[in-house]
């Protein structure tokens, strides 16, 4: 089932989330719904707060970045990079920061270059509550960092400078009011009813 994606401006996107355990209700169904929602919105990651849940869970599938784009810049190592991360903790971020144009399903039609460290080590539980600790670099690290920010109550626009943020203010206000066209179901915090 496709879930509505929460738009910029909703307070849930600014909450630090809570850990869950194996008894979390309907967890498998939630994970399946999050993947379906992410795929239908053409995303590569989706965090629980983006579907209105203040829990430490996100799903990713980076396979769209495995194929070459017009610059021939695809990363074949991402072909099978599909994961469920429950209660993740970034243990270490290292390497030079590098820029990449990021977007977010909760902030449609806005992409900006964001600087992030090149490498991370992350500890997490998978959907079977088995523990993993992995080192990631490049786009894999970036996608995980972006989704990890969501469960910490942060958004990619928080990493922009004050001038860039000021330039985006009217667009962000429009998104929060529902004045944006998207091809997927969204929930807007300040949408006027009866339009």
Q: Helicity level, as a percent range?
A: 10-25%
> Which strand order does the major sheet show?
2-3-4-5-6
Radius of gyration: 16 Å
Total strand count, please? Answer: 7
Structural class: alpha+beta
Rounded mean pLDDT score: 93
Shape: globular
In whole angstroms, the N-to-C terminal distance is 26 Å
Count of DSSP H/I helices: 3
Quaternary: single chain
Poorly predicted regions = none
The arrangement of helices and strands along the chain is EHEEEEEHHE
Strand content: 25-35%
For the sheet with most strands, the description reads: 5 strands, antiparallel
Topology readout:
Elements: E1 5-6, H1 27-40, E2 45-47, E3 57-61, E4 82-104, E5 107-125, E6 131-137, H2 138-151, H3 162-176, E7 186-187
Parallel strand pairs: 1-7
Antiparallel strand pairs: 2-3, 3-4, 4-5, 5-6
Structural description of this entry:
By secondary structure, the protein is an alpha+beta fold. Helix content is 22%, strand content 31%. It is built from three helices and seven strands. The chain has helices at 27-40, 138-151, 162-176, and strands spanning 5-6, 45-47, 57-61, 82-104, 107-125, 131-137, 186-187. The chain has a five-stranded antiparallel beta sheet with strand order 2-3-4-5-6, with helices on both faces. Strand 4 and strand 5 form a beta hairpin. The radius of gyration is 16 Å and the shape is globular. The model has no long low-confidence stretch (mean pLDDT 93).
């Amino acid at each position: 089932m496709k879930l509505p994606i929460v738009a910029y401006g909703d307070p849930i996107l600014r909450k630090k989330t809570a850990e869950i355990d194996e008894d979390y209700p309907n967890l498998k169904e939630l994970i399946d719904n999050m993947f379906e929602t992410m795929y239908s919105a053409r995303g590569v990651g989706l965090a629980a707060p983006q579907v209105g849940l203040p829990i430490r869970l996100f799903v990713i599938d980076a396979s769209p970045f495995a194929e070459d784009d017009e610059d021939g810049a695809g990363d074949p190592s991402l072909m099978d990079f599909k994961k469920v991360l429950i209660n993740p903790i970034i243990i270490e971020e290292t390497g030079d920061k590098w820029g990449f144009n990021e977007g977010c399903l909760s902030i449609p039609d806005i992409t900006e270059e964001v600087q992030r460290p090149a490498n991370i080590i992350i500890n997490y539980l998978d959907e079977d509550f088995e523990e993993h600790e992995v080192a990631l670099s490049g786009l894999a690290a970036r996608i995980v960092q972006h989704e990890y920010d969501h469960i910490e109550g942060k958004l990619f626009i928080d990493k922009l400078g004050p001038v860039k943020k000021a330039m985006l203010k009217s667009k962000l206000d429009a998104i929060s009011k529902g004045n944006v066209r998207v091809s997927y179901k969204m929930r807007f915090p300040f949408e006027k009813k009866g339009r």
